[in-house]
Amino acid sequence: MSLLPVEDAIAAILARVPAPIGEEVSLSEANGRVLTAPLIARHDQPPFNASAMDGYAVRAADVQPRAFLTQIGVSQAGAGFDGEVGPGQCVRIFTGAPVPAGADAVIMQEQATVFGDNVSFSEQPQPGRSIRPIGNDFANGQVLIRAGERLTPMRLSVAAAANAPALSVARRPRIAVLATGDELVVPGTPLDPGMIVASNSYGLAPLLAPYAETVGDFGIVGDDPDQLRQRLESVFADAPDIVVTTGGASVGDHDIVQEILLSLGVTLDFWRINMRPGKPLMFGTRGKTLVFGLPGNPVSAMVTASVFIKPALRHWLGLAVTPPAWRLPLAAPTPPNSARRHFMRAQLVHGAAGSQVLPIFETDSGHTSSMAQADMLIVQPEHDPGQPAGAMVEAIAVDAF
Ligand SMILES: Nc1nc2c(c(=O)[nH]1)N[C@H]1C(S)=C(S)[C@@H](COP(=O)(O)OP(=O)(O)OC[C@H]3O[C@@H](n4cnc5c(N)ncnc54)[C@H](O)[C@@H]3O)O[C@H]1N2
Ligand code: MOO
């Protein structure tokens, strides 16, 4: 049986992902979205020379020890001083207020001694002192956030400062999730003999949600061909962009997901990857809909979603930068690997030696409690002989977007 290399599978998936489509959203709805058009400044920021301190706007050359300047007015944020500061004069000014014409420095009020309208200063400023010059932050026409970048709270703050009420961001896919298996019951159900709680969808939905417009949970369906066909028909009738099934992906007599998908018009691109866990992953398309058939084992489902669906979703959104694979020293040795690439559960640990990655030695793809401890997946190459503690290894951060 030939197994597809991981890179080939990712390439095959990315080739099916459509180009990003832009939609306008208001700033308050844009967090986490990915820009499809650059954010370009439409004005200089600050829009005027602004004071960085509460104090006095002065002509720097006029400030001499024991000399008094005459205060001729006040400039406050939102209400600047209209006149000009002449020789021997100063203006009371507050943080963020426009620096009046004639003044070329601001002295903070802690350095001032005031007698009525006369002010002397204990500091002799250089021109430009405590002034934020016009355009110092950004200039009209400057690209502030590029297309393909994800909006974060800090970037949204800049977008608002640039006076953009709405942004063009990538439309997110609508995702449908369906669990298959006769043995499955929803969480909270008393377990009859042979039954298993269906957990996969509860991990997959939040894993995929940050990239999705919606993640619809189509529940559990048994391994009966007619029921599975009917349920998948109703999934496709909802016209999702991406369908994710779990279970029934392997070669057993009840593993009928592939057969039913094919009968419903899905074209299969591949089935079975040279990896563990997650070997029986299948991927295809039905019209414009991408279809991922994940293995039922819970660790296999979460690992294949992380390794294959996440990159597809990033590509869908037009994200320009793929997250760098971490290179971290091992906190403990790894055992030799088989011919399949191993995505090894691991923990990120921080100690005196810095950050290290600690392998979790559980390899059972049904072992959920060890998965719950993992915040990294060490990418162990095919036929890797095993590495000593301290060796640098590649790892994927489970929570990385
Ligand atoms: N003869 C072979 N048998 C198996 C092979 C193989 O190559 N030859 N591959 C194994 C591998 S690797 C995997 S992975 C599994 C994948 O099997 P399926 O995708 O067909 O999954 P199921 O048989 O339906 O379930 C496997 C396991 O996971 C539990 N499960 C299923 N769905 C859920 C769910 N939603 N939540 C929680 N747990 C779930 C299910 O009860 C089973 O225990 O096949 C191997 N077999
Ligand atoms: O690949 Mo299966 O997911 O190892 O158990």
From TrEMBL:
Cofactor: Mg(2+)
GO molecular function terms noted in the UniProt entry: metal ion binding; molybdopterin molybdotransferase activity
Enzymatic class: transferase
GO terms under biological process: Mo-molybdopterin cofactor biosynthetic process
Catalyzed reactions: adenylyl-molybdopterin + molybdate = Mo-molybdopterin + AMP + H(+)
Transmembrane segments: none
SUPFAM superfamilies: MoeA C-terminal domain-like (SSF63867), MoeA N-terminal region -like (SSF63882), Molybdenum cofactor biosynthesis proteins (SSF53218)
Sequence ranges assigned to domain MoaB/Mog in this UniProt record: 176-315
Signal peptide region: none
Entry-linked Pfam families: MoCF_biosynth, MoeA_C, MoeA_N
Domain of life: Bacteria
Positions in coiled-coil regions: none
The keyword DNA-binding appears for this protein: no
Pathway listed: Cofactor biosynthesis; molybdopterin biosynthesis
Any one GO cellular component localisation term in the record: cytosol
Function in brief: Catalyzes the insertion of molybdate into adenylated molybdopterin with the concomitant release of AMP.
Family: Belongs to the MoeA family.
Record protein name field: Molybdopterin molybdenumtransferase
Protein species of origin: Devosia limi DSM 17137
Organism taxonomic ancestry: Bacteria, Pseudomonadati, Pseudomonadota, Alphaproteobacteria, Hyphomicrobiales
